[in-house]
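Could you please review the protein record set out just below?
***
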Amino acid sequence: LLTQRVFNGANNFSFLAVPAFVVAGEVMSQGGISKKLVDMATIALGRMKGSLGIISVVASTIFAALSGSATATTAAIGGLMYPEMEKRGYPKDFAAAVQAIGGTLGPVIPPSLMMIFYGVATGESITKLLMSGVVPGILTCLLLCLMVYIIAKRRDMPTESVAFSWRKLWDSVRDSFLALLMPVIILVTIYFGICTATEAAAIAAVYGIFVALFVYRSISLRQLWDIFKKSAVQTVVISIMVTTAQLFGWIVTYYNVPTILAEAIQSVSSSSLVFLFLTLVILLIAGMFMEALSVVIIVAPILHPVALLYGIDPIFFGFFVVFVMCIGIASPPFGPCLFVSCSLSNRPLVGVAKEVLPFILVEILVAVIVIFLPEVVTFLPNLME
């Protein structure tokens, strides 16, 4: 019976989206797309206080919609922006912290591998889960930019001398238009029901390869083969995690753990708000010490049924779990994006962790906002009904 469960867990059409999105993200990451995005953001936002930090967050948000990966976003944008911020005289630990926090938007904005895993583990609509991250992802980006501006203003950080020009902005947008078109294709085809999430992933992979190979000519066939091999390894590792997590979820359900847990929580409080805040605290602590994807896969089968018993919208709760775990991606002491940023900048973990804390508080604020205003999350998914 256990063997059959593992096999059935792997034999899932929705899971085919994973290798496709991984390939698309790797192609865009290695195809020089990140520099085009940074150049465009620099022209648009260059004269603001702390502009390079704001540019990093905006570029990370756009790149997140191309890669869907937190660490890939930090590595791609951070590799470009940290040296520039250091050269312009920004505090080094602050510059590294901005790169780390920008990466946390990767799993929130579609395409999001973490949303796909949550959907596979719980049986919820992956299409709606992907769309749930659009509005709160943009809100988080704006609030992070505001925090960068406030800190930069207080510390009198530099601005860029690049004069704004509509002509330069247009040239930059035109240069990166094909790259920017990929997330639009994904969102439009999913939103209007033209494609499933899996089919949209396949289109994104083929489109990304075509653009990088024949339009930008930024990767070679040899590099493409290396991308395929790297993506295959990532997919295999993830597949083992997902299939065994589904087995774990079946065992948890078989032994009635969600009902027992729900009764225990409800004995303390019958309020869904109390449950959500308790979930927020538990996941924040878990995110500080465990890999985010692993936690999502493990807790989804346990907490998802409990949330349903509390009458919480399942799509909202799926977003909430993924978003809170994304906060942990940059949280000390073991946030993966924090380590990537420290490695890129060659800065000590303690200093960067101290600088990242205000941004962590911003993301916790967003989590609290969506608890009280779940419509921010469910607005787009509900329009698809």
